[in-house]
Design goal:
With about 400 residues, the chain is of the alpha/beta class. The protein is about 40% helix and about 15% strand. The protein has helices at about 20, 30-40, 50-55, 65-75, 100-115, 130-140, 150-170, 195-205, 210-215, 265-275, 290-305, 350-365, 375-405, and strands at about 1-5, 45, 80-85, 125, 175-185, 185-190, 230-235, 240-245, 250-255, 280-285, 310-315, 325, 330, 335-340, 345-350. The strands form 4 sheets. It has an 8-stranded parallel beta sheet with strand order 1-2-3-4-5-7-10-11. The protein has a 3-stranded mixed beta sheet with strand order 6-8-9. Strand 8 and strand 9 form a beta hairpin. Helix 10 (about 265-275) crosses helix 11 (about 290-305).
Length: about 400
């Protein structure tokens, strides 16, 4: 799969981000989707920009999405449409009592628009990364509504909205399918701060709160039920494993070469076991010269998980086109293709294109003789990580038990 970054939130400065506009994907959508199809990526993630669609309360104008919809259909690419990718209209208050209703009305309008001329089930991602949204918007004032100490209320509001939105969509598209994309993280205690093991465990477990709420496993007053879980999407990046630190800005990110790095296949297996649902890696990617090696590692781990019986349905290269940085407009070299020229042509990043080709060959059940040296090195690292991680985890566990027992002594 390939994904088009589609964030439309406001920065703390008040300036609104619109990545689809900045990358000209809305203007060159037909060419973008033709490139996607030619590269073997026949499924995509893309976004409907709520701030542009509902400029006035209750009035919906989908002209901003028309070229994306027509372009994807012409190229034969199936799209999973994000309805809320951090960006809210200025007249929508996420903490207001009517927020679930406002989102549900928007979701229903989106489904009605997309169903015209559509065949097969409609695929939607109601709200992208509820967990990160709640943290960024409710704890550290990085995303709207720029609150602090309100992460739990914001998460609950977003869950209520998703539930209401799914119900509303099903009134016009009964066969609609839903993906819930959440960050997949691994948080471990720092070997030099073993007293933080409980805090690390709590942060680790927080990644499942939104999905548990949707399923009705916790906070049943929100209205959750297993029928609201369909396909589980996990977003996985190079910074998603770290040593816990009370100050998130000081946490230590673990690279795949670390002996404490847990193989992705194991993390995928845990999610599948927890929810019993099909899953996919809904976002993954890296920047600059690490793009190809990272994507190769992730796809190999995903295929290894599938071979072991984990129901991994796909991997989404995200994003597929370079875009400006959220905070500083820097040119992020994290896509398969670059900014377009005046005619809509985009220069391809050849190493990542080769890594994608390799992944498609492996996914088809064949092997390719040519394996770049950096990818082969990652293979060797990945092969040894599982055994090493088990050894280190066992030792850390023994150390934690020893510390706990010592605390119980007079």
């Amino acid at each position: 799969m390939g994904g088009f970054e589609c964030s439309t939130h406001r920065r703390p400065s008040g300036r609104r981000v619109d990545v689809i506009d900045a990358t000209r994907h809305d203007h060159f959508a037909a060419a973008d989707y033709t490139r996607l199809s030619a590269a073997g990526l026949l499924t995509a993630r893309d976004g409907l920009r709520w701030p542009l669609i509902e400029r006035l309360p209750g009035t919906y104008d989908f002209s901003s999405a028309a070229l994306q919809v027509s372009g994807s259909r012409a190229a034969g690419v199936e799209v999973i449409w994000d309805l809320l990718h951090y960006g809210l209209p200025d007249h929508v208050d996420v903490f207001a009592a009517d927020f679930p209703h406002r989102f549900a009305a928007f979701a229903q309008a989106c489904a009605s628009y997309l169903m015209v001329g559509h065949t097969g089930p409609l695929w939607l991602c109601p709200i992208n990364e509820i967990s990160f949204f709640a943290w960024g918007g409710g704890e550290v004032a990085y995303l709207p509504p720029f609150a602090r100490g309100q992460g739990d209320p914001l998460k609950r509001a977003l869950v209520r909205a998703v539930i209401a939105g799914i119900d509303a969509v099903r009134t016009v598209a009964p066969d609609a399918r839903f993906i819930h994309a959440e960050p997949l993280i691994e948080v471990s205690v720092h070997p030099e701060r073993l007293h933080e093991v409980h805090d690390a465990h709590m942060v680790q477990g927080s990644q499942f709160e939104a999905l548990d709420m949707l399923a009705g496993r916790v906070s049943p007053e929100l209205g959750g039920h297993p029928r609201y879980l369909d396909v589980i999407g996990v977003n996985y990046y190079p910074y998603n494993q770290w040593h816990h630190h009370p100050d998130h800005q000081q946490r230590t990110v673990l690279p795949p070469t670390s002996l404490l790095y847990r193989p992705l296949r194991d993390l995928l297996a845990e999610v599948a076991t927890r929810y019993g649902r099909p899953l996919l890696i809904a976002e993954t990617g890296s920047e600059d010269e690490t793009r190809a090696a990272w994507f190769a590692m992730v796809t190999r781990e995903a295929l290894a998980a599938r071979t072991a019986g984990v129901p991994v349905q796909g991997v989404c290269l995200y994003p597929v086109v370079n875009h400006p940085g959220w905070d500083d407009d820097r040119h992020c070299h994290n896509g398969l293709w670059d900014y377009p020229d005046a005619a809509g042509n985009r220069e391809v990043h050849e190493p990542l294109a080769h890594a994608l080709s390799d992944a498609l060959v492996r996914e088809a059940g064949t092997r390719e003789e040519r394996v770049p040296a950096d990818l082969a090195a990652l293979d060797r690292w990945t092969g040894s990580l599982s055994r090493a991680a088990e050894m280190v985890a066992a030792e850390v566990s023994r150390m934690v038990r020893r510390v706990r027992s010592q605390r119980q002594l007079p």
